[in-house]
Amino acid sequence: MLSYLHGIVLSGHSMDSWILNLDDTCITNVLYCKSKRYGCDPYDPSEFKTWAMTGGIHGNERDEETIGQVTTENLHKQGSVGYERLILRTAAYKGQNTVAYKSSISKQLVEQGYRIWGNVGDQWSDLQGDYLRNRDFTLPNPMIPI
Where on the tree of life does the source sit, at the highest rank (predicted)? Predict the structure, then answer.
């Protein structure tokens, strides 16, 4: 990935971008998974949201905008700064599968004039769909092999 990144010649028009999946890619949910005995106890979305609100996690691409502020604060605490925008799943996308949601967001970015150089995720659903980027990278995730 670094070789590819260093070989990119930016256009200079500030519309160059990367898409980075947050949960289990830029950050880890391992502490939450540990509290659920690594899948032995059932996942509870409400409980996860409460846990995320306490600052246990510094970002999650499934977050609704209701936890956007704590996500931003925790991203900054972890050293993630300098990004232009944090895109969180809103109520308009509730119930939509990951591939459809991420394709829709990528399409919007391309239509706004962004050139998406790369996409980084930990699951195939992070890398599939329409409006694929110039290059996709998957990082291993031993917690959730989907």
Answer: Eukaryota
- Among 17, 4, 5, 10, CA closest to 111: 17
The closest of 121, 115, 118, 114 to 144, measured between CA atoms, is: 121
The mean per-residue pLDDT over the stretch 74-94 comes to: 81
Which tokens go with 118?
A: 């790369």
Query: Residue 119: beta bridge partners?
Result: 19, 136
HSE toward the beta carbon, residue 117, CA cutoff 13 A: 15
Q: What confidence tens digit (pLDDT) does each residue in 7-35 have?
A: 988 877 778 888 888 766 666 677 777 88
Q: Which class would CATH give 2-138?
A: alpha beta
CA atoms within 13 A on the CB side of 80: 18
Whether the pLDDT of residue 62 is over 60: the answer is: no
